[in-house]
């Protein structure tokens, strides 16, 4: 017997929806670990600021209320920061969309024959193994230091999980299922759209979740190095660092982290919703 | 019904050098339901794959005369993202049967296997026995002249298994396809078939063909009859001598 395991969500058992329990208790149970983690970080932060750092070096890590307090209330600082975040989000999204299309296409071609996979897979692996920072200077020289170059960095970093997960999914149908189609004289196209693609849907969504997270990393790296035109949030991180604006820097870092968490959560939720429905509703 | 299958001197040697079946000759005419028993690894499943065209013979000939052939796998082999109905409809989709006709036929096939009311369920919501019923419905939906079964009930619990056997021989009587059924259960082989073919250990050869005279439909109680025991005894004996 072969059974297909839907990717697990990683939620602790008690945090899953329990029938008969009010929704807000479920929501609370789910967010409690995150809130506790944030609390832990705050405690650690205060401890470093007041207990580890001597008073004359406290500017290196101002306490949370000062860092956020002075930045969040400052429109002249927050306005550009949020605009930059928006620009970065657009770059990451465009990069992600391109990576998804290219990745699914590339994997589909690879899945069509053994030799296509043997010929094409090494390129994907090379793409994955070159450290992105080694490519960044080249990309800058070839494509300039603005939007296009930033998108390209996102695509390069997000492409591999799309390729590998899609390929895995396309190849996940059982030998017997393939026999069934062979016996019914299915064309290559029918095999692809009726068996391989549907079988790959859960894996494609896993790939999408990973690619989305990587695309966010990609845009921060690209912003950091490609400073032409209006800055992205990564560009501001660099500016604040050079000017040693600790409050602004800490706020920007926090925003970036939140952005990453939000993107990951959106795609994790999407993954769960689609994959659950794919198998005819929630079974667990 | 015109389903016939003729194997003549069929030998299959795999690329690895393993000889799976050697010099097997077998005849299936309309109205035949032949079961094949043999020790594990004797090439029973290979025989079925050769008959269906999934594998090609090394020597010998395979001749199939049937407007439509169906194949039931060891696992139900359902597509998890499709409902029971859409799983059965798949065959029609692949053969480009118009939508309304294939839906009507799929509903009929599901009714035949007792799954009316479960059309919209996905495989995960169905029990092992029900999944196998969907698989049977998918095999019946194209009105096969020749039906090939690769140990389909092997993974089911004993009670479900006996139920499925009872229903399969009813379906055989009703539909009149020629059937070739692989199993490792002697009582299943005798209960279902018009003829039991006993194979030796690898490389598989046919060592005995034992006709089963009981009329269809066969009541479940047939299994406790002395004549039934006598036949299973003969099959077991032939198996014991050659494994």
UniProtKB/TrEMBL annotation, chain A:
Gene3D superfamilies: MetI-like. The lineage of its organism: Bacteria, Bacillati, Actinomycetota, Actinomycetes, Pseudonocardiales. GO terms for cellular component: plasma membrane. One of its GO terms (biological process) is transmembrane transport. This is NitT/TauT family transport system permease protein. It is a multi-pass membrane protein. It is found in: Cell membrane. The chain crosses the membrane at residues 32-53, 88-109, 121-143, 149-170, 248-270. Residues 85-268 form the ABC transmembrane type-1 domain.
TrEMBL record, chain B:
Keywords: ATP-binding, Cell inner membrane, Cell membrane, Membrane, Nucleotide-binding, Translocase, Transport. This is NitT/TauT family transport system ATP-binding protein. PROSITE patterns: ABC_TRANSPORTER_1, ABC_TRANSPORTER_2. SMART domains: AAA. Residues 5-226 form the ABC transporter domain. One of its GO terms (molecular function) is ATP hydrolysis activity.
């Amino acid at each position: 017997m072969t059974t297909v395991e839907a990717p697990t969500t990683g939620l602790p058992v008690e945090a899953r929806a329990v029938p008969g329990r009010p929704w807000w208790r479920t929501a609370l149970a789910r967010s409690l670990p995150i809130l506790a983690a944030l609390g832990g970080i705050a405690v650690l932060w205060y401890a470093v600021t007041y207990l580890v750092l001597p008073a004359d070096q406290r500017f290196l890590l101002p306490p949370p209320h000062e860092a956020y307090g002075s930045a969040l209330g400052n429109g002249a600082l927050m306005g550009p920061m949020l605009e930059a975040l928006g620009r970065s989000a657009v770059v990451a999204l465009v990069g992600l969309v391109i990576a998804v299309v290219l990745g699914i296409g590339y994997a589909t071609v690879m899945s069509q024959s053994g030799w296509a996979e043997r010929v094409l897979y090494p390129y994907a692996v090379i793409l994955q193994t070159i450290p992105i920072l080694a490519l960044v200077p080249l990309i800058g020289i070839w494509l300039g230091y603005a939007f296009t170059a930033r998108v390209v960095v996102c695509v390069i970093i997000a492409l591999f999980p799309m390729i590998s997960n899609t390929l895995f999914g396309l190849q996940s149908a059982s030998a017997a299922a393939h026999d069934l189609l062979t016996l019914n004289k299915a064309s290559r196209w029918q095999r692809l759209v009726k068996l391989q693609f549907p079988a790959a849907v859960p894996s494609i969504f896993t790939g999408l979740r990973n690619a989305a997270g990587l695309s966010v990393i990609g845009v921060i790296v690209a912003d950091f190095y490609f400073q032409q035109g209006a800055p992205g949030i990564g560009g501001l991180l660099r500016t604040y660092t050079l000017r040693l604006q600790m409050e602004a820097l800490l706020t920007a870092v926090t925003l970036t982290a939140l952005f990453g968490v939000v993107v990951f959560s959106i795609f994790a939720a999407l993954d769960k919703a689609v994959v659950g429905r794919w198998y005819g509703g929630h079974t667990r | 019904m015109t389903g016939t299958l003729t194997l003549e001197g069929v030998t299959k040697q795999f690329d690895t050098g393993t000889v799976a079946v050697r010099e097997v000759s077998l005849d299936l005419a309309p109205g035949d339901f032949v079961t094949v028993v043999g020790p594990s690894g004797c090439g029973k499943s290979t025989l079925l794959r050769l008959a269906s065209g999934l594998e090609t013979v090394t020597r010998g000939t395979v001749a199939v005369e049937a407007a439509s052939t169906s194949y039931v796998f060891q696992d139900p082999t359902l597509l998890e993202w499709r409902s029971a109905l859409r799983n059965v409809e798949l065959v029609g989709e692949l053969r480009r049967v118009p939508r309304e006709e294939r839906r009507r036929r799929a509903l009929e096939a599901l009714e035949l296997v007792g799954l009316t009311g479960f059309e919209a369920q996905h495989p995960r919501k169905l029990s092992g026995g029900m999944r196998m019923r969907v698989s049977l419905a998918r095999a019946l939906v194209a009105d096969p002249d020749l039906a090939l079964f690769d140990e389909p009930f092997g993974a089911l619990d004993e009670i479900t298994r006996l139920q499925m056997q009872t229903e399969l021989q009813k379906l055989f009587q009703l539909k009149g396809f020629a059937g070739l059924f692989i199993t490792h259960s002697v009582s299943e082989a005798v209960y279902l078939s018009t003829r039991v073919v006993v194979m030796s250990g690898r490389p598989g050869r046919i060592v005995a063909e034992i006709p089963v005279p009981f009329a269809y439909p066969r009541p479940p109680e047939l299994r406790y009859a002395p004549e039934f025991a006598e036949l299973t005894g003969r099959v077991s004996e032939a198996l014991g001598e050659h494994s």
